[in-house]
Specification:
Mean pLDDT: 87
Low-confidence stretches: 1-52
CATH superfamily: Alkaline Phosphatase, subunit A
Radius of gyration: 25 Å
Order of helices and strands: HHEHHEEHHEHEHEHHEEEEHH
Number of helices: 12
Oligomer: single chain
Length: 314
């Protein structure tokens, strides 16, 4: 008997095509997506292999007061544990003494000729900070100040020291400061909702930063805040880097301070020996933001390269 192929009816062919499409969707493919592609648009293999090296788009800096690398290493077990578990610099230096010029150096890439700790009313700085750069670029910026009585407070109040709040000195950005320079109580909400800023800073009060309190108390406070942040989506996604540093030492170590970089996207167990300073931190802010480097940050050694921090723009 000769077997001949029968033409398949158009309706039957359509039904067969529909069944095949349904079976593919049931196996995990998305209609209109190439095979092996994740819903986010990359292949499943690429998503898994890049999970630990996601681009860092957010930077949050904690500042401790007036202690050297060796003092922080010996008396801050949680902070030094982060340093060893993630990465730290052992040749990182503050710019000068006293405190205020160092905060201005981090936030503005310059000390602006300031050599004292006087209030914002005595030093009315014009021009941009890294926070203003972020907002001008369409990014987000926020400074969280412990014990601050109101947004962008320019006067001391209890354990809040205005000289430790650098954004309050940039009069050209005063309006933005009043909106985005906030009490630290907002930190947990932003961390929990994945809304930490692209350019962020956390300023403990005079007890929690070890100025008037102990390094042990400062370490306990930082542990509480950092562990809370690490439960949030900015950390777990790998898009956040946390830096812990000190404004200056106690005049006994050549202004060398411990500086920690922790992120799920940064190589771990890394000790950076490159000579870095607060202008290097300004430069890191600018690299994360993808903006022009501010003032002395242009000539500073790169923390981005030294710590191998994956950013969108270098």
């Amino acid at each position: 008997m000769r077997l001949t192929a029968r033409p398949v009816a158009r309706g039957a062919l359509a039904a067969l095509s529909l069944a095949l499409a349904v079976s593919l969707v049931g196996c995990g493919s998305q209609p209109g997506a190439p095979a092996n592609q994740s819903p986010e648009g990359g292949t499943a293999r690429a998503t898994l292999s890049s999970a630990g090296t996601r681009t860092v788009t957010k930077l949050l800096v904690f500042v401790v007061e007036n202690h050297s690398l060796s003092q922080m290493r010996d008396q801050m077990p949680f902070t030094y544990g982060l340093a060893k578990g993630f990465a730290y610099a052992n040749h990182y230096y503050a710019i000068r003494h006293p405190s205020l010029p160092n905060y201005l150096a981090i936030a503005g890439g310059s000390t602006f000729g300031v050599a004292d700790d006087r209030s914002p009313s005595a030093h009315r700085i014009k021009g941009h900070s890294v926070f203003g750069q972020a907002l001008r670029k369409g990014r987000t910026a926020k400074l969280y100040a412990d014990s601050m009585p109101s947004n962008c407070a320019v006067r001391n109040s209890g354990d809040y020291a205005a000289r430790h709040n650098p954004w309050a000195y940039f009069v050209s950005e005063r309006r933005a400061c009043r909106h985005h320079d906030v009490p630290v109580s907002q930190l947990s909400r932003d961390a929990g909702s994945g809304r930490l800023p692209n350019a962020g800073m956390v300023i403990p009060n005079l007890v929690h930063d070890a100025h008037d309190g102990t390094l042990a108390a400062a370490d306990a406070w930082i542990k509480q805040e950092v562990n809370m942040i690490r439960r949030g989506p900015d950390w777990t996604s790998g898009r956040l880097a946390i830096v812990i540093t000190a404004d200056e030492d106690d005049h006994n170590a050549g202004n060398k301070v411990l500086t920690v970089v922790a992120s799920r996207s940064v190589p771990r167990h890394r000790v950076v020996t490159t000579r870095l300073n607060h202008y290097s931190l300004t430069r890191l802010y600018d690299d994360v933001l993808g903006v022009a480097r501010l003032r002395h940050a242009k000539g500073a050694h790169s923390m981005t390269h030294a710590f191998r921090i994956p950013v969108r723009h270098r």
